[in-house]
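Predicting holo structure, iron/sulfur cluster bound.
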Amino acid sequence: MPVTRPLRAILNFAHRCAMNCEWCYVPFGEVPARRDLMLSIVERIAELGFTSITIGGGDPFQYRFLPALLLRAKSLGLFVHVDTHGKNIKQSEENILLIDSAVDLLGLPLDGSTQEVHDQMRDSKGHFDLVSRRLNWLGPLCSKVKLNTVISAFNIDDLVPLSHLVASYVPSRWSIYQYWPVGPAVRVVSKHEIEDFIFHRETECVREIYANKSTILEINSRDSRRDTYPIIHHDGEMFVHSQAPANSFVPIGSIFASHALENILASCITERHAAADRYIRYLKPTAEQ
Ligand code: SF4
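Done. Tokens:
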């Protein structure tokens, strides 16, 4: 029987980020994250029946308590996916051991095949080189690496060259996301908006290139991301994407509320098709199945 409820929760740090990507959808400015509250949120996510967690926002690796958070999530049986811009990860043996033992999927950004394109997309000089260093360092763990690319009107012409660069790193997965003017990202709509048919046409070319590659290609249009998961900020407040055609976040209360699961189920259905197999081997049978 197909799964009809969301099994993945997104936990976003929404205090601050060392990057300033102009199309970022995280509404920064909240109070700093607290270790005890973060651990409680992770426990609550598991208690509510989620089997996967994606930890993102600005930037998980800037927090000293991140190892404790990852280890707790892992000990609760969650599939642990962390997205990072890479600046705060020290290339240490300690971090290799941490990723090896407590992270199932580590996402890093790559938005251009050249320094010029990537650094302009990320508004961060030198970031292309930094990501390249991190990917070389993570080489032995490439089966856990997922590369994330935001495609907008600004970098669409670079997509094919980028597809060859991504393939050279042999990540386990390459996720392409259509720019979505949701939340704060709406401020750059005139620069980045890309029409759906152009996004689909260009990404189909990449699908052909990846037909025989070991890297799994995942193409995510903006609307495919609606209705799929709750987004939880580090203070425990939950949000979901608004219904089409609106592009905003709708608050649905605290994850600690007694009716939190009902609120989530009223807004989220299940994982989108393109992303489902990121976590599929970790789905647990339930009474309903
Ligand atoms: S690195 Fe991620 S969280 Fe930080 S500003 Fe960029 S998109 Fe937002």
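The longest helix spans residues 196-209.
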